[in-house]
Design a protein that fits this description.
This protein is 74% helix and 0% strand. By secondary structure, it is mostly helical. α2 runs antiparallel to α10, α2 packs parallel to α12 and α3 packs antiparallel against α4. It is globular and about 60 Å long. It starts with 13 loop residues before the first helix and ends with a helix.
């Protein structure tokens, strides 16, 4: 049995309540940085709804992985997250239709939209996965079925992979494998921390989950670093890192990832031992987790912008 904890006035925190909206805002901040770095070019317009879609899918991966950390997520949170993902994927598909037709989003017809979906746009997979999340969560809330929580993580991962491997990395044989591993490792790392924030109530939950998360995060970071370095060099040469918009965004993403690794190492030395020894209050854990999540979200926004910017 996982630890869910009760939401009491003592454990309620405005920082935790605003963590997810703040993380989404941080993702859009990272996306905005992409436009600044790549001016006068930059990410495609559909990067805006894609950012929200990626954020929702990443959270679903984290929520579905919580049983492995000794926690039980809220089915309502899963259902709402699936709904947000569905809307974001729909808007993204609509904007992709407008881009392909060379028209404004307001001029696109339903027939054109259907044609885009029929041609196998990556948003189709996202939509199917998101609808399944909402449907299964609704049935579960009605008490008619009890699917394994990991099913939600699988659906989130499928949607993420569909979006991640259809960009420029798909032009090489090994590219989809590298970018897929990169995306899944990042989704687990960022998604689990976000899911822990919205799920844990009380200090005991942090004591149970954080040490396990910290140990596994080392492997996730290793995969992110290795696959990111290889795919980055495959896309742009060293001489173009500063001279191109794509290269500058890539450098910013690398700098953000390095900052995250440093922050994570610091937390591993101080925060995790304090939690294990019951010397860290719930408020302190929330504050540290929110700070790390905000940096993660900015890097995720940079990643979305990078994926929709031409090398």
């Amino acid at each position: 049995m996982g630890i869910a904890g009760r939401r009491t006035p003592q454990s309620r925190s405005w920082m935790r309540d605003l963590a997810l909206p703040g993380a989404l805002l941080a993702m859009f901040t990272g996306l905005g940085v992409c436009w600044i770095l790549a001016a006068p070019g930059g990410p495609e317009a559909l990067a805006v709804p894609s950012t929200a879609a990626v954020g929702a899918a990443v959270l679903l991966v984290g929520l579905g992985a919580l049983p492995g950390l000794g926690l039980r997520p809220s089915v309502r949170v899963i259902g709402v997250t699936g709904g947000v993902w569905c809307v974001a994927a729909l808007v993204s598909a609509w904007m992709r239709t407008a881009d392909q037709a060379g028209e404004s989003s307001l001029s696109v017809s339903v027939g054109q939209f259907a044609d885009t979906l029929g041609e196998g746009a990556p948003e189709v997979v996202e939509l199917i996965a998101a609808v399944l999340v909402v449907a299964v969560a609704s049935v579960q809330l009605a008490g008619r079925m009890h699917p394994p929580v990991a099913a939600y993580a699988v659906l989130g991962a499928i949607g993420l992979l569909a979006a991640a491997i259809t960009g420029h990395p798909s032009q090489t044989a090994v590219g989809p494998l590298l970018i897929g591993a990169h995306a899944l490792a990042a989704a687990w790392w960022c998604g689990c921390l976000a899911a822990m924030l919205v799920t844990i109530r009380g200090r005991a939950g942090w004591t149970t989950a954080l040490p396990v998360f910290s140990r596994r995060a080392v492997w996730a970071v290793a995969v992110i670093a290795a696959t990111g370095a290889i795919t980055g060099l495959m896309e742009v040469g060293l001489g173009e890192l500063v001279g191109s918009g794509y290269g500058r965004i890539l450098l910013a993403k690398v700098a953000g990832t390095v900052a995250l690794v440093v922050l994570g190492a610091r937390h591993r030395r101080a925060w995790v031992p304090a939690v294990i020894r019951h010397r860290s209050s719930e408020a302190t854990s929330i504050r540290l987790a929110v700070g790390e999540l905000m940096v993660m979200a900015v890097v995720l926004g940079l990643a979305v912008g990078l994926s929709t910017t031409a090398p």
